Amino acid sequence: MTFRIGVIGAGAHGTRYLHHAQQDVQGMVPTVLCRRQQAAGAALASEWDCRHLGDAQELIESPDVDGVVICTPPSSHFPLAKAVLATGKPLLLEKPITGTLDEARQLLDLAGSTAVMVAHTLRWNPVIRKVRDLWPRLGKVHMVRLAQRLEPTKLAWQRNKDETVGGSVLLTGVHLFDLVRHLTGAEFVSVDSRQDQILNPVVEDIFLARAQLSDGCWASMEVSKYTRSRACWLEAVGEKGQIFADYLDGGIVLRAGPQEERFDVSAKTPTLPDVLRDWLAFALGGAPCPVTLADGVATIQVVDACYRSALERRETPLN
Known about the structure:
The protein is an alpha/beta fold. The protein is built from 10 helices and 15 strands. The chain has a 9-stranded mixed sheet. A 6-stranded parallel sheet has the order 3-2-1-4-5-6, sandwiched between helices. Helix 2 links the parallel strand 2 (28-34) and strand 3. Helix 5 (101-111) runs antiparallel to helix 10 (293-312).
């Protein structure tokens, strides 16, 4: 059986989905793409030997589309995802699942039994996967720290107040919030967050958040999206040891007592082939969902609490 997909939002990231679906996932083939820029969309469709449609609803309803991938800006996720759910077709929804918490909760209510997976792709990062395997060796973990340093955005919609509904908290912070839940198995209870605008004239491009989790662990999460360099770090401190990982370039250090172990794990392997394979296995009914819509809602709850905390300048419980 060939699983035919349609990709809505065939920009830089959507094109990656097209590439990996075509080249790396057996049994999957892109048949339709949708891109706002008509000429660019038509050229891309010709390159990947599929059809280009300028209307997303037409793609969603196309009989030669078995499953839909949404890679558009978050402000458009809710109406597009709602339209896919109405057809019952499997959906792979890029993070964040929606632009607001209210939309996320509505989407969860509407989903029913439809096969929806959220593309929190960092879960498939080889370094993160190894860290999760090593996690039990830390004993009870009381502190987790995640930090990402990124270049200023080159995407016009992230600097357009009419199109973006959030900055670094919504667009990048969700990666960190999801990883904290994924690694600890705990839920966020409260958040104390601050943010600022350095270079982006519309939304925050730096934030620092401290959170308490349901198991008593403290988490520190920060994103800087204004520098001319990159870094992605993870640190966890448990009663039996501590771990430091670089999930941009690779490498893990595990320290327990006087012992130190180093794991030469690369972070350069693309995550999307495995994301698409796991979505395919889930969509065809033979495997559990790796990242559920409820997981996506949980991250948006943290986003919402961060924005409320920054506005009120105090520690804020999750709604």
